Structures are given as structure tokens and as C-alpha cells.
# Entry
Amino acid sequence: MFFHVQATLPVTVNNVALDNARGECATHISAQGLYIRTFKYHRLDEQVALQLTIDGRTVKADGKVLYTRRQDSAPFVEPGMAVKFTRIMAEDREFIRQFVHDAVTRGIVMELL
# Structure
């Protein structure tokens, strides 16, 4: 089972920083990939170079575009693209996995009975 969490993370695609002022950023992330809110579209299956910042740490990865959504495709659709990681360092994948775990479990208190 894979979890993803909502996030607002600055991201660079193919060495082009997305425009945070326009709301372009990674909005969902998992250890397998991310969803990037952007108005710049890439082709299905296109390979992209990614760089994102999570809690002050820079993570670099390569990915493949799984699907895109255009702003005018349907009401209330978040424009952007889903990207699956195809190459990422093991320690970066583990860092993302821990980031997601911490976000999912934040606020859960274990009680001994």
C-alpha cells in the first residue's frame, strides 16, 4: 500500500523553476512520485528531470509523466501532471517515505491500555 500526502513544495522541471507566485508547485507526494500543479504541459511518457525542496533538503530525481490535466479540461480540475520517479537515490526515496509517514501520523497519540 502506498500513501501520498498533500504538500506545497517548490519544484524545478528540466532545470526550469516553476512559478510559485502562480501556484505552480508539487501538491501531492509519495515515495513513488508526485503531482505537480503547473500550466506548462509535458507529453505523456516524457522523461523529466526534477529537483524539489522538502524541509530544506534538495531532492533530485528523474521521472516519467503518467498523465496531464489541462486547466480547461473540467470544472475544479487542478491543472498539472502526475510524475512517477524512475531514478532517485535510495536515501532520497527513504527521506520522502519518512516525510509522508510523519505527515500521515502527525497528531496520532499512542496510549497504553
